[in-house]
Design goal:
mainly alpha, 84% helix, 0% strand, globular
Length: 195
């Protein structure tokens, strides 16, 4: 089954759309607040479609993601109890939110660096940082560093690999996709069995 190859080809077509840069900026912005699909899912195929623009695309993703993070921080600061907390419970992010609270208590601003760079839902940390009245300047600086690291790493690798990487990735995308899916299911099962 070539499900992931078809999705990959579709992403490359979307990435070549004349409004793709605006879509990337929009997705990057809202992903920092509530959107479930990570920015990398749009950035990677766009950088593959236009490797000579890869670093510019990373800059756009970083700036809009950090601005979305600031919006998430403000929403968390002013509407957490009334709007954000019910949303967190409804979407099943309660455990992630409680874990974020523990991590903020233990690690402070370093948690924003980790969340902004890793696949951990960054949106939970932007909203929680605002709700906890975390100092804004350290939050903002950590967001810039973390989002820059993630997006420039993705775009830089793609720019470095160029067209050859695009062909190799397409060749193995189904193996990679199914492998990631199986690992995700195994991780979920292991997590639920051990907790």
């Amino acid at each position: 089954m070539n499900i992931f190859t078809k999705l990959y080809d579709a992403c490359l077509r979307w990435a070549r759309h004349r409004y793709a840069v605006y879509i990337l900026g929009f997705i990057s912005f809202i992903e920092s607040i509530f959107f479930p699909i990570p920015t990398a899912a749009m950035l990677a195929p766009m950088a593959l479609a236009k490797p000579h623009h890869a670093l510019r695309l990373a800059l756009i993703a970083m700036v809009t993601s950090v601005l979305g993070g600031v919006a998430g921080y403000l929403i968390g600061a002013f509407a957490f109890e009334s709007w954000v907390l019910p949303w967190i419970h409804e979407l099943g992010y309660t455990e992630t939110y409680l874990r974020a609270l523990d991590w903020f208590a233990e690690y402070g601003v370093w948690v924003v660096l980790i969340a902004g760079f890793s696949p951990v839902p960054y949106k939970i940390f932007t909203l929680t940082a605002g709700a906890l009245s975390m100092a804004f300047v350290p939050f903002f600086i950590a967001s810039i560093i973390a989002r820059s690291a993630q997006f420039f790493l993705i775009s830089g690798l793609i720019k470095w690999g160029g067209e050859q990487m695009q062909h190799k990735l397409r060749q193995y995308v189904d193996w990679i996709g199914w492998g990631v899916l199986i690992l995700g299911v195994l991780a979920y099962i292991i997590y639920n069995v051990t907790h």
